[in-house]
TrEMBL record:
InterPro entries for this protein: Bact_HTH_transcr_reg, Chorismate_lyase_/UTRA_dom_sf, Tscrpt_reg_HTH_GntR, UTRA, WH-like_DNA-bd_sf, WH_DNA-bd_sf
Keywords (A to Z) from UniProt: DNA-binding, Transcription, Transcription regulation
GO MF annotation terms: DNA binding; DNA-binding transcription factor activity
Species: Candidimonas nitroreducens
Protein name, UniProt field: HTH gntR-type domain-containing protein
HTH gntR-type domain segment(s): 22-90
């Protein structure tokens, strides 16, 4: 991650990126994302130019371009041709997915949300997880709370096979989204995601996490991430307070 500042011949402050397995473009993406989420860059603010970012991080224009492309896919920024890149002006925690769209849209985190990692532990898989992994071997669980403007709207438990989880846990502790960490550090690509959404009643534990009454109707999402050969790499079980979160799906006719 970012280690500090150095100063060039003209006194320009530059950030040093660590020479670690995480790609440089991803480190830049996470740094810019952090600036947006903490309010350093506000909605409609313009980002530094590509040339300025190249100088700040001492990387090529191609690397900066990849970082900005990733932020566009995440919905964090948008580009105006010939003008520059700007912070997106959306504040409601919501998700829009085209059923015929790209997988990146489904995997992108909710815009302007923050994630608090509550804990990491090796556990026996719950039935729903064992069923999707087709194994009852131990798994590693990343438990998190998700908030927008400090208001919690979701609680999630993300499960990985134990041998995979231990390889990504340090990156997850450094605020990298778990599935992104797996793709980057293990050099794999999620090819497909299978998801179910169902209404449930909040248990005592979940009610405390979401600040609702026990028995309140909430949404439960179970999502399985699959890599090549339809092998599952992760299962996430997340619950949402429907008063604070909307899941929007745009339906389009099949192209003729």
């Amino acid at each position: 991650m970012i280690q500090g500042y150095t100063f060039g011949k003209q006194g320009i402050a530059r950030m040093e990126l660590t020479l670690e397995p995480t790609p440089l473009y991803f480190q830049i993406q996470q740094k810019l994302r952090s600036r947006i989420l903490n309010g350093e860059l506000k909605p409609r603010d313009s980002l530094p130019s590509e040339a300025q970012l190249c100088a700040e991080f001492s990387v090529s224009r191609i690397t900066v371009g990849k970082a900005l492309d990733a932020l566009v896919r995440d919905g964090m920024i948008h580009r105006k041709r010939g003008v520059g890149s700007f912070v997106s002006d959306r504040t409601q925690p919501s998700k829009a997915v085209r059923l015929t769209g790209s997988l990146e849209e489904m995997l992108a985190p909710v815009e302007k949300s923050t994630r608090q990692l509550l804990g990491t532990e090796i556990v026996s898989p719950p039935d729903v997880v064992a069923e999707r992994f087709q194994s009852d071997s131990d798994v590693i669980c990343f438990e998190s709370l998700h908030a927008s403007a400090g208001d919690v709207f979701s609680h999630s438990r993300m499960y990985f096979p134990a041998d995979i989880g231990v390889q990504i846990q340090q990156a997850v502790r450094e605020s990298v989204v778990p599935i992104n960490a797996a793709e980057i550090l293990l050099n794999v690509r999620v090819e497909k995601a299978e998801q179910t959404i169902a209404p449930i009643l909040a248990s005592s534990e979940i009610a405390r996490c979401l600040n609702v009454e026990k028995g309140t109707p909430i949404l439960e999402v179970v999502r399985t991430y699959l890599i090549s050969d339809s092998r599952p790499i992760s299962v996430v079980v997340a619950v949402y307070n429907p008063k604070k979160y909307q899941y929007k799906i745009d339906l389009y006719p099949r192209p003729h």
